[in-house]
Amino acid sequence: MITKWVADIGEAVSVVIGEERLREESDVWLRHARRTSLVVVVHGPVDAGKSTLIHRLLVEDGTTIPDWLLVSGRRETLGVSSVESCGITYVDTPGTAGGTLEHDELAASAVRTADVVLLMIPPQLVEEDAAWIRTFTSGTLFSDVPRSLFPAGSLLLAIGRADEAGRDPRDDPAGFHDLTERKRRELLAMLRLAEHESHPVVHAVAADPDGQVSGDPDARAEDFAGNDWDGVAALRNDLGSLRERLGELRVASRVRFWCQLATSAAIAADAELATLRPVLAEAHSRQKRRAGLRQRLTALHSAASAELRVALLNELNGLANRTGLSEEDLRTQAESRLTECLNAWYETYTRKLEQLAAEIDAELAVERVRPASVRFDAWLRDLAGARKESKERSSAGPDLTKLSEAVNLAARGVFWLRHRVSMETAREELAKISQMEKAAKTTAEAAGKAKSYFEEPGRLFPNQEAVEKVARWLPKVDKAVQVADIALEFGPLAVSAIREHRDGIKEAMRRKKLRAQITSLVDDLHDRLIGDESDHGWSAAVASVRSHIEADPLLAPVATAAAERIEKLTSARRRLRELVERLPTAESS
Description:
Layout: H1 2-17, H2 19-33, E1 38-43, H3 50-61, E2 81-85, E3 88-92, H4 101-111, E4 116-121, H5 127-137, E5 155-159, H6 173-191, E6 201-204, H7 232-243, H8 246-320, H9 327-369, H10 371-383, H11 403-406, H12 410-420, H13 423-439, H14 443-455, H15 464-503, H16 507-530, H17 538-549, H18 555-581
Parallel strand pairs: 1-3, 1-4, 4-5, 5-6
Antiparallel strand pairs: 2-3
C-alpha cells in the first residue's frame, strides 16, 4: 500500500535529513495533494517556446492572460509561475541548459509535484536534448532504478516553434507535415527507448506562427483561426483527456515525489558516510596514538615512583647500619645522602619526562599537519558550528608550558632567584603586577599601568622580560627547592629513628620498630615528593604532559557519535534503496 510505503520512506529519510526537513518536504507534497486541478508542468531549455505555448493554450480556453506570461520582448522566464485554466494548472518554469544553475534547480523542483510533464524542445534537435529527455522516460530523474514512472499519456513531448523547422506551413502544408513527422521519428530514434521506459506522446506545435500575438493580453482564439496545422488542437485534446484521470495521475505523482526524495536522501547519506568514515578512522587513529602515549607516560610514572621508594629505602637502611658516628655526624650524613639521593632521582626522571614530553610534542605536531587530521579538525569545527577558523587547531591543545622546553630551566631559575631575590618577594611582586593589570578596564589602560610599574624607583624587575622569566621559572624552582627542603626536614627524623635503633635493649624489637619507622618515613618522603596533580610535585608535571596528550576533549564523544551516525546512515540508506526498488501497489490515496 502506498501510504505505508510513504511512511517507511519518511522514517528513513528523517534519519538522513532530520525531522524538520522531512516536515518541510511533506508540506510540499500536501500542498500539491490538496489541489483539485490537474497540474501540468512545462519544462525545457531556454527559447523552446514554453511560455508562448501556455499563452496560446490560455487564449484557446478564453482564460485571462496573467501579467507574468506576457512575453513582450522578455528574454526568458526567470521563476516558477502557475495559472489555472479549465481544470488544468499550467506551471511555467525557467529555461534549462542556459548556464544558470538556479534556473535548472527551480525547473527540476517544479517537476517534483507534476501530475503531467510537458517537455518542450526547439526544432533543432541535438543529442543533448535526448539525454535530459531520457531522464524522464527512464525514470532516473526520480530514482536510480530505470523504469517507467509515468502512466500512459502523462509524459508529453512537444517540438516547439515547428513553423521554424524549415518548411512554411502556409506555402507548403504537405512539406511541413512531412517535416514534422520526420522530426518525430528522428527524436524517437535519438531517445532509443527501452520497453520498460515511459514512451512520451510527441507533438509538433507552432503556438504563435510568426510571433504576432504572444505579447498581446487581448489575443483571441480567432487570431489563430485557420491554423489547423499548428498542432495546438491535438495537444489540447490530449491534455483534456488527462484531466479525467486526475486520481490515477496524482497517485503516480506521489510515487515519483517520494521516490525522488528517497533517492536524494540516499545520495546525501552516501555523501555524509564518505565524510564520516575517514573522520571515524582518524578519531580511532588519534585514540590509538594517544593510548600509546598515555601508556608510555604511565609506565614512566610507575617506574619513577617505584625507583624513588627503593632509593629511599636503600639510603635509610644504609644510614641505620652505620656505626661509630656521632649524632651530629649522622644528622649531617642523613641530610647529605637524602639530598643527593632525591636530587639524583629528580634529575634522572625529570630528564626522562622531558624527553618523553618532547617526543609527544613532535608526534602531536606531525599529527596536526597530516591531511586526515586537518580534515578531521575542519569537520569538528563545522560540527561545532564555528563561524570562523580558530587560530589554533583543536588538536593543538590548551596553552601549556611544554615540559620539553621548560623543565631544564628549573636549575638556572633556582640559582637566579637565590642570588637576586627570594621566591617570596618574587611572588609578591608578580601578584602586585597582576592586580594592577586586573584593575585596568581596557587593554590600553593595562599597558599604561604596566609601564608605570617599570618607571617606579626601587622596582624589583627591570623590564617585562624579567617578569615573564620569573613567572615561567617559579613553578619549576619550587620543585627543585622542595627536594632540598624534604631532605632537610626528614634528615633529623631519620637520625632519631636510627638513634633509637642503637640505644634499644631488645634486638628483635629494635629491628621491628626500626623497619616500621623507616617504612613510614619512606612512605611520607615518597608521597611528599611524588605529590598529587593539584600541587607542584612530580604528579603535577606528569598531569601536565597527560593533559597535552588528551588535549582533544571531544575526541572520545566524537568517535562514539560518528560511529553511531554511520550505523544509522548505513541502515537508513539500505532501507531507502530497498523501498525505491520496490514500488507500492497502486491505490487511490
